[in-house]
Amino acid sequence: MTEKEIKKIETGDKKVLSADMTDAEMKTFATDMTSVIQALLGVMDGFEDIVESLNRPGERIRKNGPGIRRYGFIDKTSDLAAANPQFAPALFSATDLKDLVRDIELVRNLLNYLQQYSRMSQDCLLILGDRAYSMALLYYQSVRQLAQRNAPGAEAVFRALEPFFRRRNPEAPEEPPTEARVLRDVKAALHGRKDAKIVIENEKPHLVGGKHVVVDETFRDREGFKATEEL
Dihedral of CA 32/34/36/42: which sign? Predict the structure, then answer.
């Protein structure tokens, strides 16, 4: 890890990916991102030797990270030790402590930028995915039309893409309702937004624990709904 490598990441291209970028701008953005990734890989190589000791059991718990108060103590000590070297014990180096403080600041800045890159990367995935899906959908619609016109070879391509647009078979067995879905149905039924029957059966009745079976049924016919509450 070098300061130059970290600065390369911190001062990377500030252009934000947007949906209305031209193809040339997209290629430039991709090139810049590749450069950033290469710089990150270089930094990670430098980190390997530093974090290797954390692989030992219990070592991470014993380490003292630079929290806000602890870092303030470290920083103040580095200044006082440099100004008053006569009080330094054996095997102590004020210069080494200053270097460590500088490295902490660099890595902390790097972490802040990486968190920003993480948020931006998620946005980039959304924009790139939407753009790619629109292009793929355009091709699918074209090959579907050509298949309907019996264009040579179009039918095979259409059949290869068609499964991505098939709806789920309504007759397929449903999975057991999740707790979140049951709670939504209960609230909707109690407020009159849905006709439903919620039955909770305790197969092993104990004061604590037990296995529960939840039956979640909904009805379209409002007349078939009957609410019962037992206290």
Answer: negative
Kindly report the pTM of this predicted structure.
Answer: 0.48
Provide the residue-wise pLDDT of the chain in tens; the chain has 231 residues.
455 554 554 444 444 455 566 767 767 777 777 877 787 777 777 777 777 777 778 777 877 888 888 999 999 999 999 999 999 999 999 999 999 999 888 888 888 888 888 888 888 889 889 999 999 999 999 999 999 999 999 999 999 999 998 876 655 556 666 777 777 777 777 777 766 666 666 555 555 555 555 555 544 444 444 444 443
- What residues contact residue 75 under an 8 Å CB cut-off, 6+ apart? 101
Query: In the 3-class helix/strand/coil scheme, how is the chain assigned residue by residue?
Result: CCHHHHHHHHCCCCCCCCCCCCHHHHHHHHHHHHHHHHHHHHHHHHHHHHHHHHHCCCHHHHCCCCCHHHHHHHHHHHHHHHHCHHHCCCCCCHHHHHHHHHHHHHHHHHHHHHHHHHHHHHHHHHHHHHHHHHHHHHHHHHHHHHHHCCCCCHHHHHHHHHHHHCCCCCCCCCCCCCHHHHHHHHHHHHCCCCEEEEEEEECCCCCCCCCEEEEEEEECCHHHCCCCCCC
- Residue 196 β-bridge partners: 218
Q: Report how far apart the first and last C-alpha atoms of the chain are (Å, whole number).
A: 66
